[in-house]
């Protein structure tokens, strides 16, 4: 099944919030996108700072756009900054090249969507995204 339902997206967000509580993270925001880059669900915890939607969305969107988790995009930004700058331009600034955006894959290895988490350190954001994706029964690919 390649469809990402609203029910599944909301469960992913709930699991990310649970992981954030378990790790005692700062307030996070979570965006869940389908394989076509369409927003399925978004929520932010109370106390989240400004621009969290754009950052969470940009982490997930970048993962889908480039077919790799945002940790790999972060490495590419260091190795090829002009390329990532150009991607930012052609995407209208929608790609955020830091860890916290992960591809979601089904049992057949097909990308069914992506999750972007922001609010704490990038490593902690990624940990919350990974835990949430895996709790939903999918494989997480952060790059």
TrEMBL record:
* InterPro entries for this protein: GlcG_carb_metab_protein (IPR052517), PduO/GlcC-like (IPR005624), PduO/GlcC-like_sf (IPR038084)
Any single Pfam family the record assigns to this protein: HbpS-like
Name by which UniProt lists this protein? Heme-binding protein
Species this chain originates from: Nitratireductor mangrovi
